[in-house]
Amino acid sequence: MIKKNMRERSGYMGAEIFCIFCSIKKIKHMKYLEFENHIKNEVYNSTAFVDTNALIAGIHSEKNNAGRKKWLFLFIMVILAFSIPFGIYNYNNKSSKIIPFNKKSEDKEIQNKELNSSPSVVSNLTKKEAIEEKPITKTKKKALNVNTIISNKREKNNFINTKKENKPTLVNTTQISKNKDIKAKKENLEYTSKDLKTRKLLNIPDINNNNYSLIENFKTRKILKTKSLWGDPTGCYSFGPKFRLNWLIGVEAGILKPFKSLSYRSVEPNEVFDIRNAYEKPLEGLQAAIFTKLIRDDIPLYAKLGVSYTRITDRLKHKYSYIEHDTIQGIISVTKSENGDTLTVIMGDIIRDINIERNLSQHYYFHLIDIPFTLGYRFPFKNFSLEAELGAIFNIRTGKTGKILSAPKTILPVTDANMFKNSIGFSYFAGINLITSVSYKGEMFISARFRYIPGNFNISGNPIKQNYSLAGFHIGYLYNLTKRGYD
Amino acid sequence: MNIDKLIKGCKSGDRKSQDELVHRFAPTLMAVCMRYCKDENLAKDALQESFINIFKYIKNYSGKGSFEGWIRKIAVNCSYGFINKIRPVYFQEDIDYVVDLNTEIPDIYSELREKELLEMIQKLPRSQYLVFNMKVIEGFSHDEIADILKIGVSTSRSNLARARTSIIKMIESNDIAERMRIGNY
After folding, report:
1. Is the ipTM of this complex over 0.85?
2. What is the CATH number of the domain that holds B151?
């Protein structure tokens, strides 16, 4: 009321000044330090919403990722470190085969003369002629002791002796009279009827025959080649059942290259699809499996069944930008005279908007648990085998981890984004394997494989469709459970 | 779970204790990271990194001082690391910059809430904003600030003084406008 009357009296401007004066008088003040304390009290205990479950998953996956690659690399290095030298060692040992005695036939005379008179002679056999004899049966071993032929590798001393004297010498034998020789041989060389039958089948001469001369027949005796598909490293014939079904178990691990295709089934533009199509790339795929294999000795066909785990990695590398307000100190006013001389320069705050670009790098993973079934054909060669196979894979489960772009500037955990199926169904593969024996029962293999997944990974309601095919190399080990030690 | 048991569990690598720690302190640390990073995605990355470092270095926590203060320092360190990587912060050296902390400002500013206060201080230049946040809000000493920002203690002091001066100027310029507005009734 008073103010109204005053305004009417003094006019507009005066009233304004008076009102400002009144308002100034009413304003209470505080110290700046109190204001700072108020800022601290208000802001210090503030909270912000965060998805703690996703955060926990992210923290633990980050920790696991750090160790995972190291372990995988170590695993592959260990397999290679053991398999390569082992393979080389076994390959070298295979090459030092039994040398057939009939190769060196120059010393027929010596054998006929010397050995007929004294069966236990190691004579003028030179280093070249001496061979290592491997008995076929236990009883055969005894026979060899009677007519000993010494290996040049093992018993050099005897050669030295023979060399010097150039005479026939007796080594590790007992003197047996001429008439008693054959009898002694008979005692030592009695075969069972089964063995005899087998020997007949295999066309091995019957050394129980009195007229049979061991030495004569050593010349022509052949090393029997294996008829098995296994390429037995010892070169010995297998006396087991002819058509045995072999049961093997194997493990393998491999690195794959995923081939990805992304398609969009809608007319409306989709920024997320554009970004993902441009910047999302598949990285490596990893696979490990354990399986069982059945193969017959006589038929080179085989079947495999197992369980495998495959992981496919995808990465989005994308730049996005946001505006940040920044204040800098600068010249906000310059006063110049008429002459152009600078009179005053006023510095102050200049607020500017800065466009900040940020590189976003997010990974997500598919974890496939599959049951693969395979049919294949083996081509056996001298030191290795080649296999060609085809198969079908049934996917039990497709797990997802990591983060994916769900909106143009929103990254969500894959499980929350609700974009992918829990199972991708059937897929198919073809492969070629190169196998070599590393021990009597063990084999190592390297394989090249291609897997085609016809179904897409996305749920039916999602307009973005994501497909993969995989190609890669595997290494593995097979162990024959049915092969016996004396085969 | 009691905080001491929580810390003990985290030191021994107990997963449950770690998860409980995240549930308890993530909202607070997210607010800290948001204040420094200003971008939500960047703040989330900084928060994740902060917790990884907390679990990594919790064995070094001796129990002296507040645990919350310790983890806040880690969060501030991680956040600064992220923003500095994107756009390096440059600190201006000023010698003998003095501000009168007893300057009077209108009492009405005590009614401003968190959002308005943050809007005000975010207008500060980056270097001053960082130092102001760490000193006034987090309560770090100038030595700690110098250690985090890799600057000298005097640089920290001068940037804080400049920040305070800027805020006072902001208030004064707002105040004049406000006074003018009040007159129109």
Report:
1. yes
2. 1.10.10.10
